[in-house]
């Protein structure tokens, strides 16, 4: 695809995919407004607290697929196989960043979105599957031990940068992955404050 069209297509497709909020739709299918229950965050953890593990699993898979598909679209429409910030895996990473932005600030839901962890890991799953699976296992173990989703998410996110720098498919895609990590960590600012104050909720307890 012509470079003049490839980048806009990847960005728009990624953002619109990201804007489809599975937490909102799954909750609505059960007669629940996810913004009005638990923490009010339209994400997997809040769905798990308020609607159960089955509903949360649907949301998790849906949010992962948004990032993975967006990255795949970016790679497929890339104008040439050589690596650059907006070609090859670079464009895949940029489209993935657009999906995470769409998840965090969805035009379909008045820009009130989630924190982007699952969608970001979906991008990583496309760019470096084995690394994504390893970090996903780290996340799962930490959540199981601490019962606190934000701890698992933040530790896994921090680990992404050195790991992807070493094992990622390209240095150009690292730029966009780093941007995703910064965005998602920034979205966790309230969680970080609660962790410091020892007030963070577990996955089985509603946030105040």
Q: Which labels suit this protein?
A:
10 helices; 0% strand; 208 residues; mainly alpha
What fraction of residues sit in β-strands?
A: under 5%
Mean pLDDT: 90
Radius of gyration (CA) equals: 17 Å
Measured as a percent range, the helix fraction is: over 70%
Taking pLDDT < 50 over at least 5 consecutive residues as the criterion, the unreliable ranges are none
| Global structural class | mainly alpha
How many runs of DSSP E, i.e. beta strands? 0
End-to-end separation in angstroms reads 50 Å
H/E order of the elements? HHHHHHHHHH
Description of the molecule:
- The chain is mainly alpha-helical and 208 residues long.
- The protein has one domain (3-196).
- The chain contains ten helices and no strands.
- It has helices at 3-19, 22-29, 44-51, 53-76, 89-104, 117-127, 129-146, 149-167, 171-187, 189-196.
- Helix 1 (3-19) packs antiparallel against helix 4 and helix 7 packs antiparallel against helix 8 (149-167).
- The chain is globular, with a radius of gyration of 17 Å.
- The relative contact order is 0.15.
């Amino acid at each position: 695809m012509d470079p003049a069209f490839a980048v806009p297509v990847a960005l728009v497709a990624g953002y619109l995919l990201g804007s489809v909020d599975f937490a909102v739709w799954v909750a609505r299918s059960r007669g629940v407004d996810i913004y009005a229950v638990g923490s009010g965050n339209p994400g997997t953890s809040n769905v798990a607290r308020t609607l159960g593990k089955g509903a949360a699993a649907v949301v998790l898979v849906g949010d992962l697929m948004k990032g993975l598909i967006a990255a795949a679209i970016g790679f497929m429409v890339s104008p040439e196989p050589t690596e650059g910030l907006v070609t090859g895996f670079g464009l895949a990473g940029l489209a993935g960043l657009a999906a995470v932005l769409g998840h965090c600030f969805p035009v379909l839901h008045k820009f009130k979105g989630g924190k982007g962890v699952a969608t970001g890991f979906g991008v990583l799953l496309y760019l470096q599957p084995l690394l994504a699976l390893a970090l996903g296992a780290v996340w799962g173990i930490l959540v199981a031990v601490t019962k606190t989703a934000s701890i698992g998410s933040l530790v896994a996110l921090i680990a992404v940068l050195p790991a992807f720098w070493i094992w990622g498919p390209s240095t150009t895609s690292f730029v966009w992955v780093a941007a995703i990590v910064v965005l998602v960590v920034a979205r966790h600012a309230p969680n970080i404050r609660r962790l410091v104050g020892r007030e963070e909720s577990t996955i089985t307890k509603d946030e105040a």
